[in-house]
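quick one
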Amino acid sequence: SSDKWEVDPADLTLDDAELGSGQFGVVLLGHWRELKVAVKMVRAGAMSEEDFKEEARVMMKLSHTKLVQLYGVCTQHAPMCLLFEFMEHGCLSDYLRNHRGSLPQGTLLAMCVDVCEGMAYLESANFIHRDLAARNCLVSENHVVKVSDFGMTRFVLDDQYTSSQGSKFPVKWSAPEVIQYSKFSSKSDVWSFGVLIWEVYNEGRMPYENRSNGEVVEALSAGLRLHKPKIAPEAVYQLMDWSWKEKPEDRPSFTLLFHQLLALSEL
Ligand code: ADP
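structure w/ adenosine-5'-diphosphate:
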């Protein structure tokens, strides 16, 4: 069958350049038609491929300037590979670390606005990210930050990553209801977004640096929260703190956060 999302391997050339590696395997630079693409080569046993192929139809339809576009999948031969929009400057967390001390306030805020805009689009499409963090955002050639890897954790075959008890579970980005009973929602994404803003204003530092996952869970339930990053304006910290309300319904929506952040950037 010639599904629209199926990429013909004859149209794809892979460079030797490795862009990185992640949960599913290595990511290579490639060329597809006239486009530069990032190609995720899916390691055998790393992904529930049938479930993903089903969902790829939905994900291909998600299209926005602040989302890293999925172009298609190539399932003709093993390993299966996924073609994404190529993002010249790599992941946001590395970008922040590599530019420490040199990113102006306006740039930091613009990064948060970009991510929030992409997330407001996902929220309006009723699509939950489930693993929003600076490491899952990418920076384009024009320094636009885009949201990547949305919904992908559902296809990871690694209990250490998918179970909230697992050693690779992103506890430090997770809302309490996610840690306690895996209740994911756009409001749990909002919690993670608050942590992402904290990462941006701490220039890529690890949240709760000296605490274990267990200690973080304990501190959160005692009502403790991340502190205001030194260089963050008070108004920005208020938005973070609002995103970390215990009850999901007390947190703002992405649409609301987007308008608030935009207003701050126009000051
Ligand atoms: P996984 O989803 O398998 O965990 P990641 O998405 O974390 O993999 O990708 C691993 C690394 O590959 C990233 O940290 C980044 O450096 C690079 N990478 C991933 N996607 C892209 C892309 N679209 N453009 C450029 N580099 C990318």
